[in-house]
Amino acid sequence: MAHNLRFPSAEPDQNDEGVPRELAELGQLIGSLPSPGQPELQVAFQRIVESVRRRHRILVLVQEALSQLRLDIKYLMFDLDVTRKERDELRQRMEGL
After folding, report:
1. Is 20 helix (H, G, I), strand (E, B) or coil?
2. Which residues are CB-contacts of 16 (< 8 A; sequence separation ≥ 6)?
3. For residues 11 and 14, what is the distance between their CA atoms, to the nearest angstrom?
C-alpha cells in the first residue's frame, strides 16, 4: 500500500514515483491508525497519491517537451543564420557581375 514508498538519496523531497516525502509520511501514519477509520482514509489517500503521480508525470513530459523545443529553436536559428549568409554572398556575387 501507500506506506511502502521508498526514498532515493538523490532527491530527498520526492521518491522515485514523484510522491513528496511528506505525503509518503502521511501514508505511513494512515497505515498505523486503528481499523475503524483507516480504510476510508487509505482510499482517499490513494486517490491523492495517484493525482500527485499523474501531475508529476505531466510535469516531466512538459519539461522534456520544453527541452526539445529549445533544441529545435537553436537548430532553426542556426539554419536561419546560414541562410542569411548564403543570401548575402549570392547578392555580393550578383552585384559584382
Report:
1. strand
2. 6, 8
3. 6
In tens, the pLDDT along 21-76 reads 899 898 888 888 888 888 888 999 999 999 999 999 999 999 999 999 999 999 99
As a whole number of angstroms, the distance between CA 59 and CA 49 comes to: 15
The C-alpha cell of 79 is what?
539554419
- Per-domain residue ranges of the chain: 2-96
pTM: 0.64
Core vs surface per residue 44-78: b (16+ CB within 10 A) or e: ebeeebeebeeeeeeeeeeeeeeeeeeeeeeeeee
